[in-house]
Design goal:
It contains ten helices and 19 strands. The protein is α+β, with helices and mostly antiparallel strands. The protein has three domains: about 140 residues, 2-Layer Sandwich (Gyrase A, domain 2); about 60 residues, Alpha-Beta Plaits (2-Layer Sandwich), CATH 3.30.70; about 80 residues, Elongation Factor Tu (Ef-tu), domain 3 (Beta Barrel). It has a six-stranded mixed beta sheet, with helices on both faces. Strands 14-17-16-15-18-19 form a six-stranded antiparallel barrel. The longest helix has 15 residues. The model has no long low-confidence stretch (mean pLDDT about 95).
């Protein structure tokens, strides 16, 4: 397994580890519940250095990314970020990612850890060869910088106060005024660091991109600065429960090459842009056919009416009307919600069963448990 620059620091803190996308990552340090509640009430510190960082530079960077991804990246302002998808020609989702516009002709693409090499290869191939039938590629350079970059996140209500306490004194306002899905450059301990305000927990939070050799010092500085704010180190286990409560999809669970954007409910596809982006024809056909809207399946939230939680792959069963007893879908993610106190799940179900309030069962290894379709997200933070 690959290790991040902070693996030794995690071991010293007593972390238990897991294999995640080929990386040795901290699963938890003390208690998954304790870490989950810390993020919801104070703050949690995460090592996300397994994520990818792919830089796109060149005069055709905007046009290139508008061809590679489903969203309109040319419309993103410098200093802002956008969530998007990269798809196959058949519309299947290769990955979901965040794209930061660094400058007029420069972007930073952040894919998921397990998909980084797939995304880098797809972008490199498109840059060099262009779309099928085109005479040439694009005037851009694709640099996979993942091996040299560490990514640290602070998530929770106290995140802004913690970050504000470690930046240079005259830059505190940059933290306070940074908008959601935006980024800036700050100085911490004499080092210039890219600071973004995005997140994957449903709470306010920040991500810090920096070279590997600077990661250890920043990790310790954040732990020290956060000690008075209730900050604790957190692993991937609570990150999963946090993102599920916030209704955020996970690649490999809710997002796969077998699913298209319309089934997920993610409003990320831009048909108004002029570029013939990868998967456009297939997605236009799927939209015309009503896939994910009038036909097929759709991703929904399920609230448990009992005490047991559904897990990925468990069948969803209709309980009402002529389809009672029929399998209508399957769970993609599920667990007992630490914040809400009842089981929650996301599942793809047939379109006739997506209306909030619809009662269904999840088959827990032969034992049906009652659930109710609800709107996502399950949890929304107080602002």
């Amino acid at each position: 397994m690959r290790e991040t620059a902070l693996t030794a620091a995690h071991a010293e803190l007593g972390a238990s580890f897991t294999d995640f996308g080929g990386w040795k990552m901290p699963l938890k340090y003390t208690s998954e519940l304790e870490e989950h509640h810390a993020v919801r009430t104070t703050a949690g510190l995460f090592d996300l250095s397994h994520m990818g960082e792919i830089r796109i530079i060149g005069p055709e960077a905007a046009t290139f990314l508008n061809t590679a991804l489903v969203g309109n990246l040319a419309a993103v302002a410098i200093g802002r970020a956008k969530y998007s998808l990269i798809c196959r020609e058949d519309g299947g989702i290769l990955d979901d990612l965040i794209v930061y516009r660094i400058d007029e002709n420069e972007y930073l693409v952040v894919p998921n850890a397990a998909n980084r090499e797939v995304v880098a290869a797809a972008l490199t191939d498109l840059a060099e060869n262009g779309r099928a039938g085109s005479a040439s590629g694009y005037d851009v350079e694709v640099w996979d910088e993942s091996e040299g970059i560490s990514l640290i996140a602070v998530q929770g209500p106290a995140a802004a106060a913690i970050i504000g306490s470690v930046v240079r004194a005259n830059e505190t306002f940059l933290v306070e005024e940074l908008r959601y899905y935006a980024f800036t450059t700050v100085s911490i301990g004499g080092d210039e660091i890219l600071l973004a305000r995005t997140g994957y927990t449903g709470e306010d939070g920040f991500e810090l991109f920096l070279p590997n050799d600077k990661a250890g010092a920043l990790w310790l500085a954040l732990l020290e600065a956060g000690s008075d704010h209730g900050l604790i180190p957190c692993g991937l286990a609570c990150r999963d429960s946090l993102r599920l409560e916030a209704g955020m999809p996970l690649y490999g669970n809710e997002l796969t090459t077998d699913r298209i954007s319309f089934e997920t409910g993610l409003p990320v596809v831009s048909f108004s842009k002029e570029e013939d982006f990868v998967g456009r024809a297939a997605l236009e056909q799927a939209k015309a056919e009503g896939r994910g809207k009038t036909s097929g399946q759709r991703l929904v939230g399920l609230r448990g009416l009992g005490r047991r939680a559904g897990r990925s792959g468990y069948p969803v069963i209709a309980t009402e009307g002529e389809h009672s007893g029929v399998t209508i879908g399957a769970v993609t993610s599920g667990l007992p919600s630490p914040t809400l106190g009842y089981p929650i799940a996301m599942a793809y179900v047939d379109l006739g069963f997506t209306e909030p309030g619809t009662r269904v069962d999840i088959d827990l290894r032969g034992k049906p448990q009652p659930f109710e379709v609800v709107a996502l997200p399950f949890y929304t933070r107080k602002r």
